From TrEMBL:
GO function term, MF aspect, one: tRNA binding
Enzyme class, first EC level, given as a word: ligase
Lineage per the UniProt record: Eukaryota, Metazoa, Ecdysozoa, Nematoda, Chromadorea
One Pfam match: tRNA-synt_2c
Keywords: Aminoacyl-tRNA synthetase, ATP-binding, Ligase, Nucleotide-binding, Protein biosynthesis, RNA-binding, tRNA-binding
Domain (Alanyl-transfer RNA synthetases family profile): residue spans on this chain: 1-217
The protein's name: alanine--tRNA ligase
UniProt EC number: 6.1.1.7
Swiss-Prot/TrEMBL GO biological process terms: alanyl-tRNA aminoacylation
GO terms for cellular component: mitochondrion
Similarity section: Belongs to the class-II aminoacyl-tRNA synthetase family.
InterPro entries: aa-tRNA-synth_II/BPL/LPL (IPR045864), Ala-tRNA-lgiase_IIc (IPR002318), Ala-tRNA-ligase_IIc_anticod-bd (IPR018162), Ala-tRNA-synth_IIc_core (IPR018165), Ala-tRNA-synth_IIc_N (IPR018164), Ala-tRNA_ligase (IPR050058)
SUPFAM superfamilies registered for this protein in UniProt: Class II aaRS and biotin synthetases, Putative anticodon-binding domain of alanyl-tRNA synthetase (AlaRS)
Amino acid sequence: LFQAEACLYAWNFLTDILRIPADRLYVTYFSGDESMKLEEDRECRDIWIKLGVPENRVLGFCSNHNFWEMAETGPCGPCTEIHYDLIGNRNAQELVNSDNPTVVEIWNLVFMQFSRDISGRISSLPTLYIDCGMGFERLVSIVQGLHSAYDTDLFLPLMKIIHKCSKVGEYGGQLKDINSSKTDTAYRIIADHLRAACIMISDGVQPGSRNRGLVSS
């Protein structure tokens, strides 16, 4: 029940609420780690298969990818991730967790079961809990059928304002490739900073020359 409910909620939200095609999704789970004396998380693997995810789309990965730790010590645990294939109609197994820009992580469930002490020893936590992470902008881009969050209606109004104020060429949407435009990169940096500044100011952090205000400036 500890893992099953979280997996069910995540899967239903993505496939039923957002209507993201299930045949574009891949799921990863913790395949174990001998150095930490932790076995494969077969319970998690079986949960996904019972939810209807094909076995060849439920992929095991080592602790580098599927074990989360806040720091060198403290709470930690295996995680399961959901990845989305931007292209579709292909077998993208080998592209998962390979830094390929066409297969992106959109959801992460960390099963906080353990704690690591200063000596590196891992012990079980008395209470189990789940840390859920998802990329809002990335999900918006997927729902809107786009390959970049900067092309969504979250960012395009900002791009238009930047264009109007800067009087440079319009935002072209070119990303990291041989044809990438430095102007487009500048657009994205400015848009990100503007949003961050707005959020900080709305939380009461006014621009200044000291402490938090310096960050806002």
